[in-house]
Amino acid sequence: MDDPLPHDERSPDAADRVGGVDLLGELLELAEQLGVQVRRASMGGSGGGLATLRGQPILFVDTDAPAEVQLEKSAAGLSRLADRIEQIYVRPALRALLEGGQ
Hints:
- This protein is an alpha+beta fold and 102 residues long.
- It has one domain (20-100).
- 35% of the residues lie in helices and 21% in strands.
- The chain has four helices and five strands.
- The chain has helices spanning 23-33, 67-78, 82-85, 92-100, and strands spanning 17-18, 21-22, 37-41, 49-53, 56-62.
- The strands form two sheets. It has a three-stranded mixed sheet with strand order 3-5-4. Strands 1-2 form a two-stranded antiparallel sheet.
- It starts with 16 loop residues before the first strand and ends with a helix.
């Protein structure tokens, strides 16, 4: 579906909302459901992603990055856990986002 407004005319968080649902929030909740620790930190605007420290998966969310970048990096990181995600219900819009990050 085409976006009726040019990118710069949308609200700042329009990229992470579908049908009024906060996809980034859902994605971070999914991470926690999967036993992934979520850490929000200032990383200069282009950081973030999934890392493993001492055997524990940690999803870093760059608080300096725009919401769209936070969403993209988080989805790309969690898509590495596809085998674990397949075993639980994930809303279709969120699943499509995760599958796009593979």
